[in-house]
Amino acid sequence: MSSMQRKVILDCDPGIDDAVALCLGLAAEEFDVLAVTGVEGCVSADQANRNVQYLLSQLDPAKWPRIGSASHADDAPAVDTRYLHGDDGLGNVGSTTAAPHHPHPSEKLIGDLVRAYPNQVTIIALGPTTNIARAFRRDPGLEGLVDRLIVMGGAVDGVGNITANAEFNVHFDPGSARHVLASRTTKTLIPLDVTRQVQWTLDLLEQLPDVGSRLGRLLRRMLPFAYRSYRQRLGQECILLNDAVALMAALEPDLFSTEGMAGDVEVSGELARGMVLFDRRHPQEWRANMEVAREVDVERLRERFVTRLRRAAVFFRD
Ligand code: RIB
Ligand code: CA
Question: What is the pTM of this model?
Answer without folding.
Answer: 0.97
